[in-house]
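hi!! sorry for the late reply, been swamped w classes. u asked for the two structures so here they r. pasted raw, havent cleaned anything up. first the sequence of the first protein and right below it the tokens
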Amino acid sequence: MTTIVSSRVVRAGTEAAVALFLDWSMDRWWRTRVRRMNVDQPGPAQVGQRIEEELRFAGMTFVTPTRIESAGPTAAHYTGGSALVTVAGSREVRAEPHGHVTLVATIEVAMRGVLRPLTPLLTPMYRRLQERDLDRLAALLDGDVHLTPPSPSP
């Protein structure tokens, strides 16, 4: 299993950061490869919440059922997987001085089945994707970009 940790400091307050970062139904606003995100209980992460993500990555489509295992006001931990990938990770919003927050995304990824031999190739690609997505989220929270709502999922 490979662990990828990324973080960004943003000017946004905790409430705004939590609203986008800890509500998986908002991922399509800032995660560019997400095609569909079904959340059984929309809103901030809560224990037992089920998420089904459809992600287009490396020319392949991954559908990954995931479950929130633990959640608090500013952090959540999840696990999930499919025949092709196993994932676990967390998202955390940490308060900083002067009204800033740090967003921390941690993901543990293990490719399975026929994709297992591709892990050394796919891991750096996923790391870059996570970094770009956090850049997009930071720009959105800092007000540096204004986005139109994503298209509804088919």
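now the second protein. again sequence first, tokens right under
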Amino acid sequence: MDHAPDNKTPFYLKFSVSLLGIGLLAAVVVLANEIIIPILFAILLATLLLPVVKFLKSKGCHKVISILIPVAFTLITFAALLYLLSTQIMHFLDDAPALKERLVEVGNSFQKWVNQNMNITVSKQNEYIKDTVADIKEKSPQVVGKTLGSVTGVLA
């Protein structure tokens, strides 16, 4: 005989426990993200390198060597990408004065256009820009700190 279990637990209790569980899970994920993200990145990297390791082992490579070769190749690839990115940034910074001059010209013509089409004076526009820049300067150290913390956490 098949008997359905007698379910006497009220719906509101089940719902409350489910919501509490979801909330606790979300809190754990938020609070432990500095631990969870590197672990997930390591799992992703290991999963991506596993077929190469298996292939090298099937060809008769020693287990340690078949692991070291893909890891070394990956590290060299990341180092090369980092080098290329840094050289491109250096070239960009070399061109920064010319870019700044061109942006000033474009900004001046844009301010004239705004003045003509929207009747906002250049001095009022400059005041808006000054306030925005001050706000950005005030918040930028926090943003840079969080960004560097995230990057170093992933690299660790």
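hope this helps!! also noticed smth abt the second:
The CA atoms of residues 12 and 96 lie 62 Å apart.
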